[in-house]
Protein backbone atom coordinates (compact mmCIF):
# COMPACT_ATOMS: atom_id res chain seq x y z
CA UNK A 1 0.00 0.00 0.00
CA UNK A 2 2.27 2.58 -0.49
CA UNK A 3 4.29 4.75 -2.55
CA UNK A 4 5.71 6.41 -5.48
CA UNK A 5 7.14 6.13 -8.80
CA UNK A 6 7.31 8.26 -11.79
CA UNK A 7 5.24 6.55 -14.29
CA UNK A 8 2.18 4.68 -14.01
CA UNK A 9 1.07 3.12 -10.98
CA UNK A 10 0.52 2.11 -7.70
CA UNK A 11 1.70 -0.03 -5.27
CA UNK A 12 1.48 -1.76 -2.14
CA UNK A 13 -0.53 -4.21 -0.34
CA UNK A 14 -3.49 -5.11 1.69
CA UNK A 15 -2.43 -5.15 5.29
CA UNK A 16 -3.29 -8.20 7.33
CA UNK A 17 -2.77 -9.04 10.94
CA UNK A 18 -1.38 -11.93 12.92
CA UNK A 19 1.67 -14.11 12.95
CA UNK A 20 3.06 -15.46 9.82
CA UNK A 21 4.99 -18.62 9.50
CA UNK A 22 2.80 -20.66 11.78
CA UNK A 23 -0.04 -20.20 9.35
CA UNK A 24 1.73 -21.21 6.22
CA UNK A 25 1.70 -24.66 4.91
CA UNK A 26 4.58 -25.28 2.58
CA UNK A 27 5.58 -21.66 2.96
CA UNK A 28 7.46 -22.60 6.11
CA UNK A 29 8.66 -26.01 5.08
CA UNK A 30 9.83 -27.62 1.92
CA UNK A 31 6.84 -29.94 1.81
CA UNK A 32 6.33 -31.23 -1.73
CA UNK A 33 2.96 -32.82 -1.17
CA UNK A 34 -0.24 -31.45 -2.62
CA UNK A 35 -1.54 -28.50 -0.61
CA UNK A 36 -4.53 -28.79 1.65
CA UNK A 37 -7.47 -26.60 0.76
CA UNK A 38 -9.96 -25.02 3.09
CA UNK A 39 -13.42 -23.70 2.49
CA UNK A 40 -13.42 -20.10 1.36
CA UNK A 41 -15.25 -17.67 3.65
CA UNK A 42 -18.64 -16.45 2.59
CA UNK A 43 -18.88 -12.80 1.61
CA UNK A 44 -20.71 -10.64 -0.90
CA UNK A 45 -20.09 -7.39 -2.73
CA UNK A 46 -21.78 -4.22 -1.52
CA UNK A 47 -22.02 -1.32 -3.95
CA UNK A 48 -23.18 1.19 -1.34
CA UNK A 49 -23.77 1.07 2.40
CA UNK A 50 -27.01 2.42 3.87
CA UNK A 51 -27.65 6.12 3.41
CA UNK A 52 -26.99 8.34 6.45
CA UNK A 53 -29.95 9.47 8.51
CA UNK A 54 -28.33 12.85 9.05
CA UNK A 55 -25.13 14.85 9.39
CA UNK A 56 -22.56 14.17 12.09
CA UNK A 57 -20.28 16.57 13.95
CA UNK A 58 -17.20 14.43 13.45
CA UNK A 59 -15.92 10.91 12.97
CA UNK A 60 -12.53 9.22 13.24
CA UNK A 61 -10.73 6.96 10.79
CA UNK A 62 -7.62 4.81 10.95
CA UNK A 63 -4.89 4.44 8.31
CA UNK A 64 -2.11 1.88 8.29
CA UNK A 65 0.45 4.58 7.47
CA UNK A 66 1.13 8.27 7.42
CA UNK A 67 1.07 9.73 3.90
CA UNK A 68 4.39 9.89 2.11
CA UNK A 69 3.26 13.25 0.73
CA UNK A 70 0.04 15.12 0.07
CA UNK A 71 1.56 16.80 -2.95
CA UNK A 72 -0.59 15.31 -5.71
CA UNK A 73 2.51 14.89 -7.90
CA UNK A 74 3.80 12.27 -5.45
CA UNK A 75 0.52 10.82 -4.14
CA UNK A 76 0.96 7.37 -5.52
CA UNK A 77 -0.32 5.06 -2.84
CA UNK A 78 -3.13 4.14 -0.50
CA UNK A 79 -2.08 6.20 2.52
CA UNK A 80 -1.60 9.37 0.48
CA UNK A 81 -4.62 9.19 -1.77
CA UNK A 82 -7.22 8.17 0.83
CA UNK A 83 -6.61 11.58 2.40
CA UNK A 84 -6.08 13.61 -0.77
CA UNK A 85 -9.24 12.29 -2.45
CA UNK A 86 -11.37 14.25 0.02
CA UNK A 87 -9.37 17.46 -0.19
CA UNK A 88 -8.24 17.88 -3.79
CA UNK A 89 -10.16 17.32 -7.01
CA UNK A 90 -9.30 16.35 -10.56
CA UNK A 91 -10.52 17.44 -13.97
CA UNK A 92 -12.67 14.30 -14.10
CA UNK A 93 -14.20 12.28 -11.26
CA UNK A 94 -13.58 8.56 -10.87
CA UNK A 95 -16.77 7.13 -9.36
CA UNK A 96 -17.11 4.10 -7.06
CA UNK A 97 -18.27 1.94 -10.00
CA UNK A 98 -15.12 2.99 -11.91
CA UNK A 99 -16.92 5.16 -14.41
CA UNK A 100 -15.69 8.68 -15.17
CA UNK A 101 -17.85 11.79 -14.98
CA UNK A 102 -17.21 15.55 -15.11
CA UNK A 103 -15.21 17.02 -12.25
CA UNK A 104 -13.45 20.37 -12.27
CA UNK A 105 -13.81 20.13 -16.04
CA UNK A 106 -17.51 20.36 -16.73
CA UNK A 107 -16.89 19.03 -20.24
CA UNK A 108 -14.11 17.86 -22.53
CA UNK A 109 -13.67 17.46 -26.28
CA UNK A 110 -11.31 15.42 -28.40
CA UNK A 111 -11.30 17.35 -31.70
CA UNK A 112 -8.20 15.63 -33.10
CA UNK A 113 -6.32 12.48 -32.10
CA UNK A 114 -3.60 14.68 -30.60
CA UNK A 115 -5.70 17.20 -28.62
CA UNK A 116 -7.86 17.18 -25.51
CA UNK A 117 -9.82 20.33 -24.74
CA UNK A 118 -11.22 20.88 -21.22
CA UNK A 119 -13.90 23.41 -20.25
CA UNK A 120 -13.18 24.46 -16.67
CA UNK A 121 -16.14 24.67 -14.30
CA UNK A 122 -17.25 28.12 -13.16
CA UNK A 123 -18.25 28.94 -9.58
CA UNK A 124 -15.58 26.77 -7.90
CA UNK A 125 -13.33 28.19 -5.16
CA UNK A 126 -10.22 26.96 -3.43
CA UNK A 127 -10.26 26.51 0.33
CA UNK A 128 -8.73 29.98 0.77
CA UNK A 129 -11.75 31.42 -1.06
CA UNK A 130 -10.03 32.33 -4.33
CA UNK A 131 -11.82 31.27 -7.55
CA UNK A 132 -10.65 28.41 -9.75
CA UNK A 133 -9.29 29.64 -13.08
CA UNK A 134 -7.91 28.03 -16.22
CA UNK A 135 -4.45 29.29 -15.24
CA UNK A 136 -4.59 27.10 -12.11
CA UNK A 137 -5.23 24.06 -14.29
CA UNK A 138 -2.30 24.88 -16.56
CA UNK A 139 0.04 25.38 -13.60
CA UNK A 140 -1.11 22.20 -11.85
CA UNK A 141 -0.85 19.89 -14.85
CA UNK A 142 2.42 21.40 -16.05
CA UNK A 143 4.21 20.32 -12.86
CA UNK A 144 4.14 16.74 -14.12
CA UNK A 145 6.35 17.80 -17.02
CA UNK A 146 8.95 19.48 -14.82
CA UNK A 147 11.97 17.22 -14.22
CA UNK A 148 12.74 19.25 -11.09
CA UNK A 149 9.42 18.08 -9.64
CA UNK A 150 10.00 14.43 -10.58
CA UNK A 151 6.30 13.58 -10.63
CA UNK A 152 5.22 10.05 -9.86
CA UNK A 153 2.67 10.50 -12.64
CA UNK A 154 5.07 11.47 -15.40
CA UNK A 155 4.13 8.39 -17.45
CA UNK A 156 0.65 9.86 -17.96
CA UNK A 157 2.28 12.95 -19.45
CA UNK A 158 5.05 11.35 -21.49
CA UNK A 159 3.29 12.13 -24.78
CA UNK A 160 2.28 15.69 -23.84
CA UNK A 161 3.75 18.43 -26.03
CA UNK A 162 1.94 21.45 -24.55
CA UNK A 163 -0.60 22.48 -21.90
CA UNK A 164 -2.10 25.87 -22.70
CA UNK A 165 -4.95 28.16 -21.76
CA UNK A 166 -6.92 28.59 -24.98
CA UNK A 167 -9.95 30.48 -23.67
CA UNK A 168 -11.33 32.20 -20.61
CA UNK A 169 -12.27 28.83 -19.11
CA UNK A 170 -10.58 26.50 -21.56
CA UNK A 171 -7.38 24.43 -21.39
CA UNK A 172 -5.99 22.49 -24.33
CA UNK A 173 -3.53 19.63 -23.98
CA UNK A 174 -1.62 18.84 -27.16
CA UNK A 175 0.00 15.42 -27.52
CA UNK A 176 2.93 14.33 -29.65
CA UNK A 177 0.83 11.33 -30.69
CA UNK A 178 -2.61 9.90 -30.10
CA UNK A 179 -2.90 8.84 -26.46
CA UNK A 180 -6.15 7.32 -25.20
CA UNK A 181 -4.81 6.95 -21.69
CA UNK A 182 -4.24 10.61 -20.93
CA UNK A 183 -7.89 11.55 -20.55
CA UNK A 184 -8.68 8.35 -18.63
CA UNK A 185 -6.03 9.36 -16.09
CA UNK A 186 -7.62 12.77 -15.46
CA UNK A 187 -9.89 11.19 -12.84
CA UNK A 188 -6.93 10.45 -10.56
CA UNK A 189 -3.97 12.25 -9.00
CA UNK A 190 -2.59 13.01 -12.46
CA UNK A 191 -5.57 15.31 -13.03
CA UNK A 192 -5.60 17.14 -9.67
CA UNK A 193 -5.86 20.93 -9.74
CA UNK A 194 -4.23 23.13 -7.10
CA UNK A 195 -4.09 26.90 -6.79
CA UNK A 196 -1.22 28.28 -8.88
CA UNK A 197 -0.65 30.95 -6.23
CA UNK A 198 -0.37 28.31 -3.49
CA UNK A 199 2.11 26.27 -5.50
CA UNK A 200 4.27 29.35 -5.97
CA UNK A 201 3.98 30.45 -2.34
CA UNK A 202 4.65 27.09 -0.68
CA UNK A 203 7.41 25.90 -2.97
CA UNK A 204 9.26 22.92 -1.48
CA UNK A 205 6.89 22.90 1.53
CA UNK A 206 3.83 22.26 -0.61
CA UNK A 207 2.04 19.07 0.43
CA UNK A 208 4.08 18.40 3.56
CA UNK A 209 2.99 18.67 7.19
CA UNK A 210 3.87 22.34 7.41
CA UNK A 211 2.86 23.57 3.95
CA UNK A 212 -0.36 21.53 3.62
CA UNK A 213 -2.49 22.02 0.47
CA UNK A 214 -5.17 24.42 -0.79
CA UNK A 215 -7.59 22.63 -3.10
CA UNK A 216 -11.31 22.59 -3.97
CA UNK A 217 -12.68 19.40 -2.37
CA UNK A 218 -15.51 18.95 0.16
CA UNK A 219 -12.96 19.00 3.00
CA UNK A 220 -10.03 21.29 3.71
CA UNK A 221 -6.81 19.89 5.18
CA UNK A 222 -6.55 21.93 8.38
CA UNK A 223 -3.94 20.07 10.43
CA UNK A 224 -1.24 17.45 9.99
CA UNK A 225 0.40 16.24 13.19
CA UNK A 226 3.46 14.45 11.89
CA UNK A 227 3.50 10.84 13.02
CA UNK A 228 0.00 11.07 14.53
CA UNK A 229 -2.92 12.23 12.41
CA UNK A 230 -4.45 14.58 9.87
CA UNK A 231 -7.61 16.60 10.41
CA UNK A 232 -10.07 17.44 7.64
CA UNK A 233 -12.69 20.17 8.11
CA UNK A 234 -15.85 20.58 6.03
CA UNK A 235 -15.54 23.30 3.38
CA UNK A 236 -18.86 25.09 3.54
CA UNK A 237 -18.49 26.77 0.14
CA UNK A 238 -17.97 23.52 -1.74
CA UNK A 239 -19.44 23.73 -5.25
CA UNK A 240 -21.15 20.32 -5.57
CA UNK A 241 -24.25 20.06 -3.36
CA UNK A 242 -24.53 16.32 -4.08
CA UNK A 243 -21.23 15.73 -2.32
CA UNK A 244 -21.39 18.32 0.42
CA UNK A 245 -19.64 16.78 3.44
CA UNK A 246 -22.01 15.21 5.96
CA UNK A 247 -19.40 15.47 8.73
CA UNK A 248 -18.04 18.69 10.16
CA UNK A 249 -14.64 17.15 10.83
CA UNK A 250 -12.69 13.95 10.16
CA UNK A 251 -9.68 12.89 12.18
CA UNK A 252 -7.55 10.28 10.44
CA UNK A 253 -5.15 8.46 12.77
CA UNK A 254 -1.95 6.73 11.65
CA UNK A 255 -1.45 3.26 13.16
CA UNK A 256 1.27 1.21 11.55
CA UNK A 257 0.72 -1.73 13.91
CA UNK A 258 -2.07 -3.89 12.50
CA UNK A 259 -3.06 -5.21 15.92
CA UNK A 260 -3.48 -1.68 17.18
CA UNK A 261 -5.67 -0.80 14.21
CA UNK A 262 -7.92 -3.78 14.76
CA UNK A 263 -8.19 -3.14 18.50
CA UNK A 264 -9.11 0.48 17.84
CA UNK A 265 -11.93 -0.65 15.55
CA UNK A 266 -13.11 -3.43 17.88
CA UNK A 267 -13.26 -1.11 20.85
CA UNK A 268 -15.02 1.69 19.02
CA UNK A 269 -12.06 4.02 19.58
CA UNK A 270 -12.23 4.87 15.87
CA UNK A 271 -15.25 4.79 13.60
CA UNK A 272 -13.81 3.11 10.54
CA UNK A 273 -10.96 2.19 8.28
CA UNK A 274 -10.11 0.85 4.84
CA UNK A 275 -8.29 -2.37 3.97
CA UNK A 276 -9.16 -4.47 6.98
CA UNK A 277 -6.58 -7.10 7.97
CA UNK A 278 -8.16 -10.30 6.74
CA UNK A 279 -7.26 -12.20 9.90
CA UNK A 280 -9.39 -9.67 11.76
CA UNK A 281 -12.53 -9.76 9.64
CA UNK A 282 -14.21 -12.49 11.67
CA UNK A 283 -13.23 -10.75 14.93
CA UNK A 284 -14.70 -7.47 13.78
CA UNK A 285 -17.87 -9.08 12.48
CA UNK A 286 -18.50 -10.68 15.84
CA UNK A 287 -17.42 -7.77 18.05
CA UNK A 288 -20.75 -6.00 17.78
CA UNK A 289 -19.19 -2.59 17.13
CA UNK A 290 -19.92 -2.31 13.42
CA UNK A 291 -19.73 -4.14 10.09
CA UNK A 292 -17.15 -5.16 7.49
CA UNK A 293 -18.13 -4.55 3.87
CA UNK A 294 -16.60 -5.89 0.66
CA UNK A 295 -16.45 -3.91 -2.57
CA UNK A 296 -14.97 -3.44 -6.01
CA UNK A 297 -11.21 -3.73 -6.29
CA UNK A 298 -8.71 -3.36 -9.12
CA UNK A 299 -5.66 -4.70 -7.30
CA UNK A 300 -3.75 -7.90 -7.99
CA UNK A 301 -1.34 -9.21 -5.38
CA UNK A 302 1.90 -9.97 -7.19
CA UNK A 303 5.59 -10.50 -6.65
CA UNK A 304 7.53 -7.88 -8.59
CA UNK A 305 10.61 -9.32 -10.27
CA UNK A 306 13.04 -6.48 -9.68
CA UNK A 307 16.27 -8.09 -10.88
CA UNK A 308 16.53 -9.88 -14.20
CA UNK A 309 20.32 -10.04 -14.08
CA UNK A 310 20.22 -12.81 -11.49
CA UNK A 311 18.60 -16.25 -11.60
CA UNK A 312 15.15 -14.79 -12.29
CA UNK A 313 16.42 -13.45 -15.59
CA UNK A 314 15.79 -16.93 -16.96
CA UNK A 315 12.11 -17.43 -17.78
CA UNK A 316 12.34 -21.05 -16.67
CA UNK A 317 13.28 -19.91 -13.16
CA UNK A 318 10.31 -17.54 -12.99
CA UNK A 319 8.04 -20.34 -14.20
CA UNK A 320 9.56 -22.73 -11.66
CA UNK A 321 9.02 -20.33 -8.79
CA UNK A 322 5.38 -19.87 -9.80
CA UNK A 323 4.90 -23.64 -9.83
CA UNK A 324 6.71 -24.13 -6.52
CA UNK A 325 4.55 -21.65 -4.63
CA UNK A 326 1.44 -23.07 -3.02
CA UNK A 327 -0.55 -20.05 -4.09
CA UNK A 328 -3.83 -21.34 -2.70
CA UNK A 329 -2.18 -21.99 0.63
CA UNK A 330 -0.62 -18.54 0.55
CA UNK A 331 -4.01 -16.99 -0.24
CA UNK A 332 -5.61 -18.90 2.63
CA UNK A 333 -2.89 -17.85 5.08
CA UNK A 334 -2.26 -14.30 3.89
CA UNK A 335 -5.82 -13.29 3.03
CA UNK A 336 -7.81 -15.99 4.86
CA UNK A 337 -9.30 -17.05 1.55
CA UNK A 338 -10.88 -13.68 0.77
CA UNK A 339 -10.15 -13.71 -2.92
CA UNK A 340 -9.16 -16.04 -5.70
CA UNK A 341 -6.05 -17.08 -7.56
CA UNK A 342 -5.25 -15.35 -10.82
CA UNK A 343 -2.73 -15.79 -13.62
CA UNK A 344 -3.29 -12.25 -14.92
CA UNK A 345 -1.99 -8.88 -13.72
CA UNK A 346 -5.38 -7.16 -14.09
CA UNK A 347 -8.88 -7.72 -12.77
CA UNK A 348 -11.91 -7.85 -15.03
CA UNK A 349 -13.27 -4.79 -13.20
CA UNK A 350 -10.97 -2.46 -15.16
CA UNK A 351 -11.87 -3.82 -18.61
CA UNK A 352 -14.59 -1.19 -18.97
CA UNK A 353 -16.01 -1.17 -22.49
CA UNK A 354 -14.05 -4.26 -23.53
CA UNK A 355 -15.47 -6.56 -26.18
CA UNK A 356 -16.51 -10.10 -25.30
CA UNK A 357 -13.82 -11.37 -27.65
CA UNK A 358 -11.18 -9.36 -25.82
CA UNK A 359 -12.27 -10.65 -22.42
CA UNK A 360 -12.09 -14.22 -23.69
CA UNK A 361 -8.64 -13.57 -25.13
CA UNK A 362 -7.46 -11.87 -21.95
CA UNK A 363 -8.67 -14.35 -19.36
CA UNK A 364 -9.61 -17.67 -20.94
CA UNK A 365 -6.88 -20.13 -21.71
CA UNK A 366 -4.08 -18.24 -19.99
CA UNK A 367 -0.95 -20.19 -19.17
CA UNK A 368 -1.54 -21.84 -15.81
CA UNK A 369 1.12 -22.52 -13.20
CA UNK A 370 -0.16 -25.43 -11.09
CA UNK A 371 1.55 -26.36 -7.85
CA UNK A 372 4.10 -28.94 -9.03
CA UNK A 373 7.42 -29.13 -7.18
CA UNK A 374 8.94 -31.87 -9.33
CA UNK A 375 8.21 -30.07 -12.59
CA UNK A 376 9.62 -26.89 -11.07
CA UNK A 377 12.83 -28.67 -10.04
CA UNK A 378 13.32 -29.87 -13.61
CA UNK A 379 13.11 -26.31 -14.86
CA UNK A 380 15.72 -25.22 -12.31
CA UNK A 381 18.00 -28.05 -13.46
CA UNK A 382 17.53 -27.03 -17.09
CA UNK A 383 18.39 -23.44 -16.23
CA UNK A 384 21.49 -24.54 -14.33
CA UNK A 385 20.93 -22.20 -11.39
CA UNK A 386 20.66 -24.66 -8.49
CA UNK A 387 22.17 -23.15 -5.35
CA UNK A 388 22.02 -19.57 -6.60
CA UNK A 389 20.54 -16.92 -4.31
CA UNK A 390 17.47 -14.74 -4.62
CA UNK A 391 16.70 -11.94 -2.15
CA UNK A 392 13.09 -11.24 -1.19
CA UNK A 393 12.33 -7.88 0.43
CA UNK A 394 9.55 -7.53 2.99
CA UNK A 395 8.44 -5.17 5.75
CA UNK A 396 6.49 -5.38 9.03
CA UNK A 397 3.34 -3.95 7.46
CA UNK A 398 0.96 -6.88 7.84
CA UNK A 399 0.68 -10.64 8.04
CA UNK A 400 0.30 -10.89 4.27
CA UNK A 401 3.79 -9.49 3.78
CA UNK A 402 5.27 -12.07 6.11
CA UNK A 403 3.28 -14.97 4.68
CA UNK A 404 4.04 -14.13 1.06
CA UNK A 405 7.75 -13.50 1.57
CA UNK A 406 8.13 -16.71 3.59
CA UNK A 407 6.03 -18.66 1.12
CA UNK A 408 8.16 -17.46 -1.78
CA UNK A 409 11.37 -18.21 0.12
CA UNK A 410 10.23 -21.72 1.04
CA UNK A 411 9.20 -22.35 -2.57
CA UNK A 412 12.59 -21.20 -3.85
CA UNK A 413 14.42 -23.41 -1.39
CA UNK A 414 12.24 -26.39 -2.17
CA UNK A 415 13.45 -26.36 -5.80
CA UNK A 416 17.14 -25.87 -5.11
CA UNK A 417 17.58 -22.10 -4.91
CA UNK A 418 18.93 -20.24 -1.90
CA UNK A 419 16.46 -17.67 -0.60
CA UNK A 420 17.17 -14.77 1.74
CA UNK A 421 14.43 -12.60 3.23
CA UNK A 422 15.50 -9.00 3.80
CA UNK A 423 13.20 -7.15 6.21
CA UNK A 424 13.17 -3.36 5.92
CA UNK A 425 11.08 -0.59 7.48
CA UNK A 426 7.76 0.38 5.87
CA UNK A 427 9.28 3.62 4.62
CA UNK A 428 12.24 1.78 3.12
CA UNK A 429 9.80 -0.61 1.48
CA UNK A 430 8.00 2.34 -0.04
CA UNK A 431 11.31 3.46 -1.51
CA UNK A 432 11.50 0.25 -3.53
CA UNK A 433 8.85 1.73 -5.80
CA UNK A 434 10.48 5.10 -6.28
CA UNK A 435 14.23 4.74 -5.83
CA UNK A 436 16.22 2.38 -8.08
CA UNK A 437 19.08 2.35 -5.58
CA UNK A 438 16.72 0.93 -2.94
CA UNK A 439 16.14 -2.10 -5.17
CA UNK A 440 19.81 -2.93 -5.57
CA UNK A 441 20.37 -6.51 -4.49
CA UNK A 442 16.61 -7.24 -4.28
CA UNK A 443 15.13 -9.87 -6.62
CA UNK A 444 11.48 -9.93 -5.49
CA UNK A 445 9.06 -7.84 -3.48
CA UNK A 446 5.31 -7.97 -2.95
CA UNK A 447 2.78 -5.45 -4.20
CA UNK A 448 -0.97 -5.15 -4.34
CA UNK A 449 -0.95 -3.05 -7.51
CA UNK A 450 -4.17 -1.17 -8.18
CA UNK A 451 -5.23 0.65 -11.31
CA UNK A 452 -6.62 4.15 -11.07
CA UNK A 453 -8.33 4.32 -14.42
CA UNK A 454 -10.96 2.07 -16.03
CA UNK A 455 -8.59 0.49 -18.53
CA UNK A 456 -6.18 -2.47 -18.24
CA UNK A 457 -3.69 -0.74 -20.52
CA UNK A 458 -2.65 1.33 -17.52
CA UNK A 459 -1.04 -1.84 -16.15
CA UNK A 460 0.66 -2.87 -19.34
CA UNK A 461 1.90 0.60 -20.11
CA UNK A 462 3.95 0.25 -16.92
CA UNK A 463 5.74 -2.81 -18.29
CA UNK A 464 6.98 -1.32 -21.53
CA UNK A 465 10.72 -1.10 -22.04
CA UNK A 466 12.21 1.81 -20.13
CA UNK A 467 9.14 2.67 -18.03
CA UNK A 468 9.94 3.84 -14.51
CA UNK A 469 7.74 1.24 -12.85
CA UNK A 470 9.16 -1.56 -14.97
CA UNK A 471 11.26 -2.33 -11.93
CA UNK A 472 13.16 -5.29 -13.34
CA UNK A 473 13.83 -3.64 -16.72
CA UNK A 474 11.97 -6.41 -18.52
CA UNK A 475 11.79 -5.95 -22.27
CA UNK A 476 9.81 -7.68 -24.99
CA UNK A 477 9.57 -6.02 -28.45
CA UNK A 478 6.27 -7.69 -29.35
CA UNK A 479 4.73 -6.60 -26.06
CA UNK A 480 5.99 -3.03 -26.52
CA UNK A 481 4.53 -2.88 -30.02
CA UNK A 482 1.12 -4.03 -28.81
CA UNK A 483 1.04 -1.63 -25.87
CA UNK A 484 2.05 1.28 -28.08
CA UNK A 485 -0.55 0.32 -30.67
CA UNK A 486 -3.28 0.13 -28.04
CA UNK A 487 -2.42 3.56 -26.61
CA UNK A 488 -3.37 5.19 -29.91
CA UNK A 489 -6.83 3.54 -30.11
CA UNK A 490 -9.69 5.64 -28.73
CA UNK A 491 -12.47 3.05 -28.96
CA UNK A 492 -12.36 0.96 -25.75
CA UNK A 493 -13.64 -2.21 -27.38
CA UNK A 494 -11.10 -2.07 -30.19
CA UNK A 495 -8.34 -1.10 -27.76
CA UNK A 496 -9.20 -3.99 -25.46
CA UNK A 497 -8.57 -6.53 -28.19
CA UNK A 498 -4.99 -5.32 -28.60
CA UNK A 499 -4.46 -5.03 -24.84
CA UNK A 500 -5.66 -8.63 -24.44
CA UNK A 501 -2.73 -9.79 -26.55
CA UNK A 502 -0.35 -7.87 -24.30
CA UNK A 503 -1.92 -9.52 -21.24
CA UNK A 504 -1.26 -12.95 -22.70
CA UNK A 505 2.41 -12.11 -23.28
CA UNK A 506 2.78 -10.89 -19.69
CA UNK A 507 1.11 -14.09 -18.53
CA UNK A 508 3.63 -16.17 -20.48
CA UNK A 509 6.76 -14.12 -19.75
CA UNK A 510 6.08 -13.34 -16.08
CA UNK A 511 7.78 -9.96 -15.60
CA UNK A 512 5.77 -9.96 -12.36
CA UNK A 513 4.41 -13.12 -10.71
CA UNK A 514 0.62 -12.82 -10.20
CA UNK A 515 -0.74 -14.44 -7.05
CA UNK A 516 -4.34 -13.50 -6.26
CA UNK A 517 -7.01 -10.84 -6.32
CA UNK A 518 -9.58 -10.00 -3.67
CA UNK A 519 -12.24 -7.47 -2.65
CA UNK A 520 -11.67 -4.05 -1.15
CA UNK A 521 -12.72 -4.01 2.49
CA UNK A 522 -13.95 -1.28 4.81
CA UNK A 523 -15.14 -1.31 8.43
CA UNK A 524 -17.89 1.06 9.55
CA UNK A 525 -18.62 1.45 13.24
CA UNK A 526 -22.11 1.73 14.66
CA UNK A 527 -22.15 5.53 14.52
CA UNK A 528 -21.55 5.99 10.77
CA UNK A 529 -22.72 4.87 7.36
CA UNK A 530 -22.94 6.03 3.73
CA UNK A 531 -19.63 5.05 2.13
CA UNK A 532 -19.24 3.02 -1.08
CA UNK A 533 -16.77 0.19 -0.32
CA UNK A 534 -14.78 0.58 -3.55
CA UNK A 535 -11.10 1.06 -4.31
CA UNK A 536 -12.23 4.32 -5.91
CA UNK A 537 -11.87 5.77 -2.39
CA UNK A 538 -8.38 6.66 -3.58
CA UNK A 539 -9.83 9.35 -5.86
CA UNK A 540 -13.51 9.76 -4.95
CA UNK A 541 -14.40 11.94 -1.91
CA UNK A 542 -15.59 9.01 0.18
CA UNK A 543 -15.50 10.79 3.54
CA UNK A 544 -18.01 13.39 2.29
CA UNK A 545 -20.69 10.70 1.97
CA UNK A 546 -20.36 9.44 5.56
CA UNK A 547 -22.93 10.62 8.07
CA UNK A 548 -24.77 9.36 11.12
CA UNK A 549 -26.28 5.87 11.07
TrEMBL record:
Record keywords, A-Z: Signal
SUPFAM superfamilies: Periplasmic binding protein-like II (SSF53850)
Highest taxon of the lineage: Bacteria
Gene3D superfamilies membership: Dipeptide-binding Protein, Domain 1, Dipeptide-binding Protein, Domain 3, Periplasmic binding protein-like II
Region forming the signal peptide: 1-30
Residues covered by the Solute-binding protein family domain: 100-465
Annotated Pfam families: SBP_bac_5
InterPro entries hit by this protein: Peptide/Ni-bd, SBP_5, SBP_5_dom
Protein name: ABC transporter substrate-binding protein
Biological source species: Microbacterium ureisolvens
Amino acid sequence: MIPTRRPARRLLAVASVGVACALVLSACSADTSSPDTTAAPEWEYTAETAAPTGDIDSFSWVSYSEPYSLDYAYAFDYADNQVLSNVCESLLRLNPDYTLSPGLAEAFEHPTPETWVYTIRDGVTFHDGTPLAAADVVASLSRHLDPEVGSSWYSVYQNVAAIEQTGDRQVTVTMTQADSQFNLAMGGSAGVVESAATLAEKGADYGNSSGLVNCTGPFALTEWKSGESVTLTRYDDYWDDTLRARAGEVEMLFMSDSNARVNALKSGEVDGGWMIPTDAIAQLQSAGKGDVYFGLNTAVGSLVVSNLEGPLGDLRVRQALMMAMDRQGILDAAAKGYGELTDALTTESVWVGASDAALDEAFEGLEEYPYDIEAAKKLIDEAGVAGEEIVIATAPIGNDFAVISQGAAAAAQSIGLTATIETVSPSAYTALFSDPSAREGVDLFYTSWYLSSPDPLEMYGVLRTGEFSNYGNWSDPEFDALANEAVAIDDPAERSEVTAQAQRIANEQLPWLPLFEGPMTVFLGDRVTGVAPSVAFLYFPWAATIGSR
